[in-house]
Every structure is written in C-alpha cells, then in structure tokens.
Amino acid sequence: MPRAVREQQMLDAAVQTFARRGYRNASMDDIAEQAGVSKPLVYLYLNSKDELFAACIRREADSLVAAIRAAVEHDAPADRRLWSGLHGFFTHTAEHPDGWALLHVQARTHGDPFAREVAAMRAEIVEFVTHLLRAAVRENGCGAARTGRMTGGEAPGLAYALVGAAESLAEWAGDRAGGGPSAEEAAATLMNFAWAGLGNLLRGERWSPGGHVGA
Fold first, then answer.
1. Does the structure show a pLDDT above 60 at 23?
2. 128, 107, 124, 125: which is closest to 116 by C-alpha?
3. What is the mean pLDDT of residues 95-102?
4. Among residues 163, 165, 156, which one has the least CA distance to residue 189?
C-alpha cells in the first residue's frame, strides 16, 4: 500500500479513537489496532502521539474549511450564498461527527498547541463569512454610517457571532438519532434567526433600547 494511503488510514483510525475515547484515554496501541497496522509503523509515520493528534486536527480543520468554501453558491444572491455556506458547514459536521468532536471538544481542551490549531481554523472561517457579509453590504449599497445601515466595518463582529451560533447548533444538528434537524433545516434555522436581523441592518433599521431607528 502506498505510504500516503496508509497514512490516511492511520489518521482515520486516530480521529475516531481520539474523538470517542479522548486524547488522554486513547493509546497508540488502540490506534494501531483500529488502523490494522503495527504500533511501530504508526510511530514511524507520525512520530508521536502529540504529532499524530496535531496531524488529525490539521486534516479535519482543512477538510471543514474546504467543505464550506466549496458549498457556497458564488453566483447567487447574498442570502443564498450565506445559506449555502451554512448548509455546507452543517452537512460536513453531520457527516464527520468524529472529526467535529475532535475539533470542537478534544482539541480545545488539551493544551495551547492544539487549541491554536482550532483557533486558526475558526479565524479562517470568520474571515470567509466576513467577506460574504461585506459583499452583501456592497450589493445593497450600504456605505454611509449616517443612514443607519450596516457597514463593512460591522461585518467582522457579525461574522464572529454567526460562526459561534453555527458551532453551537452543530451538535444538535448532528444528533439525527435523537431527533436533531437535517443540515438543511439547521441552516434554515440559523438563517431565520440571523438573516432577518441582517436584512433590517441592510435596510437601515437598527434595534436600540429606545426602539428601532429607521433608515
């Protein structure tokens, strides 16, 4: 078997083992057995448990980001582009529950080097969503803050909020056996929650403690 194929086989086994048993409880013996190889071969290819864990995080993070980018319908209206990206996110996390558990739970709780890998992935997704929101601002002719409309400068904060909400929904969306929604339903839920507010901003209708401010 070619080295690259064998290495991916080991990473598949490691992702499953780390996600289901946790980093501390997962052993290289477990991973080797799951992959159908010897433990010395795992060490030969991937050096150490820490390096193996980091390689798993990088692979799953790259895969998730690629899935989101590929899902976006770039020629569609702004709301459809955002919805398609969210749909891609929820589809990928539901289809790769071990990978999502590794990124969302395990990597964040086992030290700075691993948490930084996930933070870098999250920053890339936030930057991508920021780009989508700024495109929506341009398409709707929103540029002057005095109009009360959304501006490109607000996009990063809104992108952080949207990504955080998507992460919170992903676990629920992945629980299909427990009655969780499909990826399409989860994306629609978040769009119904977020896009209505974004639509008001694009029209210049802002919430304030004293009531809405019109355009």
1. yes
2. 107
3. 94
4. 165
